[in-house]
From TrEMBL:
Cofactor: Zn(2+)
Catalytic function, reaction form: 7,8-dihydroneopterin 3'-triphosphate + H2O = 6-carboxy-5,6,7,8-tetrahydropterin + triphosphate + acetaldehyde + 2 H(+)
Natural source organism: Lacrimispora amygdalina
Pathway: Purine metabolism; 7-cyano-7-deazaguanine biosynthesis
Name of the protein: 6-carboxy-5,6,7,8-tetrahydropterin synthase
Highest taxon in the source lineage: Bacteria
Length: 143
């Protein structure tokens, strides 16, 4: 099996609804996302001969996903009162609502699924919330 890895980073704010501690407050991170893909074979001809996929394509596909979240406030659906949400929208803030608790674990699955939807055979997605703290998601091929 061949493996290929790339990474991107983005800056965004989040908070953890229902968390007893400092993470209940809106705070920011420079999130680092590391994706590893796998393939039993390599391209046989053309520009990408000998590659799983061109790094530049893999990098761009991941960047498209991280750019979507960059400089946003990421919030779990239903975690703010409707009037608060409306007020933030009226202020013109970039808000991204997600249907999971925005933890490092939640984001690792999010990026795993986003890159899988793009056709990659993803081995793992690792998301760093801080340089020392990360979570990863993968699915073993036996289900
Ligand atoms: N398993 C997880 N635990 C925590 C997560 C998470 O995503 N997965 N997230 C948080 C908070 O979002 C928080 O930002 C991180 O908390 P903490 O580790 O305390 O942050 P720091 O490393 O910056 O800690 P300092 O003590 O301020 O250096 C909490 N837990």
């Amino acid at each position: 099996m061949y493996y290929l890895e790339t990474e991107q980073s983005f800056d965004s704010a989040h908070f953890l609804k229902g968390y007893e501690g400092k993470c209940k407050n809106i705070h920011g991170h420079r999130w680092r996302v590391v994706i590893e893909i796998q393939s039993p074979s390599l391209q046989k001809e053309g520009q990408t001969q000998g590659m799983i996929v061109d790094f530049s394509r893999l990098k761009e596909d991941l960047k498209e996903e991280t750019d979507y979240l960059d400089h946003s406030l990421i919030l779990e659906k239903g975690s703010l009162r409707p009037e608060t949400l409306l007020a933030l929208k009226e202020e013109g803030f970039l808000l991204v609502e997600v249907n999971f608790r925005p933890t490092a674990e939640g984001f690792s699955r999010y990026f795993y699924e986003k890159m899988s939807e793009k056709g990659y055979n993803v081995k793992s997605a690792r998301v760093y919330e801080t340089p020392a703290n990360s979570a990863s998601y993968g699915e073993d091929s036996h289900g």
